[in-house]
Amino acid sequence: MVERSHGTQSWIDRLSQTELPALTAVVRDLQRLAQQNDASVQQLADVLLRDASLTSKVLRVANSVYYNPSQESIRTISRAIVLVGFDNVRLISLSVSLIDGLLTHRPRQQLQELLASAFHAAVQARNLSSYVLNGHEEEVFIAALLHQLGEMAFWSAGGEQADELAQALEVPGAEAEEVVQRVLGTSFRQLSQGLAKSWGLGELVSLAHAGGSHTHPAVKAVQLGVQISKAALEGWGSPAMEALLNKVAPFIGLGPEESLQQVLASADEAVKVASTFGASSLCRLIPSTDPAQIFDQQQARQARLLQPDLLFMQQALQDLGLMANQRSDVEQILSSVLDGLHRGAGLERVMLAVLADGQSRFRAKRVIGEQTEVWLRDFVLPAVQVEQPHIFSYALRHREAIWMGVPASYSLNELVTLPIRQSLGAGMFFIAPVLANGREVGVLYADCHLSGRALRHEQFVAFQRFTLLAGRCLGALSKR
Fold first, then answer.
1. What's the pLDDT tens digit per position in 283-338?
2. Is the backbone of residue 287 left (phi > 0), alpha (psi -120 to 50) or beta?
3. What is the spatial distance between Cα 436 and Cα 181, in angstroms, rounded to a whole number?
4. All domains in the chain, ordered by first residue
5. Cβ(124)–Cβ(161) under 8 Å?
6. What is the pTM of this model?
7. Distances from the Cα of 37 to the Cαs of 32, 33, 86, 202, 438, in angstroms?
8. CA end-to-end span of the chain, whole Å?
9. pLDDT tens, position by position, 386-425
10. Count of beta carbons in the 10 Å neighbourhood of residue 172
């Protein structure tokens, strides 16, 4: 069990030496080369060749249309440096290392959103800097990419304290900075600055945290890039974005409308860059400039921020109580159950998997929540699988509601099989049997994987109540 960390230095030591040592070593070596005026091609090649996987990924990126439009074959790091450039290969190497190093652990939604924002900020900052600097664009890109390094490293490797923080941030009225300070004993800003110093990330990364006290164009470009990536989440026409464009326009010497077009073009480019670097899963989290997709992304963010609606939940429970005694149909019952759990209890994804095909398989019957439609087509599990028992059959056989991901259920972790993780993802979830007059109907499943938020006790209580009422209603229906 990892000891609890508290304070900036404690977290720096833990993240650098225990959780992310390989990433730390590569980043330090790459940044050390950046600070050597006489660094050679062979020195950079030597750093990359220590890791065959990193080498192959750097070569793949170097051969992409984005970096190599002529499509001249690049088979060695030395050739990549000649054709793509020393600084670009270093930038590619650091970016690929960051993705691999941070996403090795279970990629929480918070981490994925931060990484997407980091790539978006990096491209915005680099493109803005090209208007006001002669060179150093790669340094600006890296500084923006690593601006929130501390927070990214924490959500990647914070373990149980990351679970604790996620849950504490969900408490209504919680002040984020105060909660972070209490759980970590430091702020994310202090942690980022501490890691930047410890990992030798250079002056620009540190100066970018200094607020408005530094007016160097490179620092200003990094700060604007980071601010644009955050404001874009509120919408390209939001007040925050309009205020930023009033700063961007004089900085790069363009009018407001031309500045907006530059920013939108950079957002599109950021999607290409993330995909080129092997982080295509992050592309959907970078705000789209397509009007049709903007609406979809806003809906997705609302789903990740879904909050319980107690009045709606109480009404759904009352409706189900009436359905147990009055004439109703299956569709009404299932709609009330799933809507009550989703909108009422704030559970982001809910599925009823029923016994089908002669009770030989579990199949998704009804789903609700973002990214659940695919379950209706693809989710199938054998009902009985002696060689590989799973949590769905276990819950139905033992006739109990289970909260997976808490200490009480750790002994059942091996029942969350690879096919289940591939279909539903990793993390906490609820599962419970649906029984109608003792007859096995199937199981209810619910999670909050979209946002990565920890599930709460009151949600589990609601989940149990809805499951029992679903069984009562279906049982009453079968009697009639």
1. 989 988 877 666 665 566 565 567 889 999 999 999 999 998 877 789 999 999 99
2. beta
3. 49
4. 105-146+201-304 (no CATH), 310-479 (3.30.450.40)
5. no
6. 0.65
7. 10, 8, 12, 14, 76
8. 55
9. 778 999 999 999 999 999 988 888 899 999 998 998 899 8
10. 6
